[in-house]
Amino acid sequence: MCLDNLSGCELIALASIISIYIADGLSSEQISKLGAFFTALGDNLSLLSN
Predict the structure, then answer these.
(1) Each residue of 18-45: pLDDT tens digit?
(2) Looking at the domain assignment, is residue 49 inside a domain?
(3) CB under 8 Å to 23, separation ≥6 — which residues?
(4) How many CA atoms lie within 13 A of 8 on its CB side?
């Protein structure tokens, strides 16, 4: 799958599905920590793309 070929709606749906799959069975604290990690990861990727 190439992410360049997906529309914005498809990317949002894919992100939602992956989020639900990852969060299944985790505590609120664990989900929060993962969210912070992926936010930092995304921020760093954005900085590197410029």
Answers:
(1) 999 999 999 999 999 999 999 999 999 9
(2) yes
(3) 31, 34
(4) 0
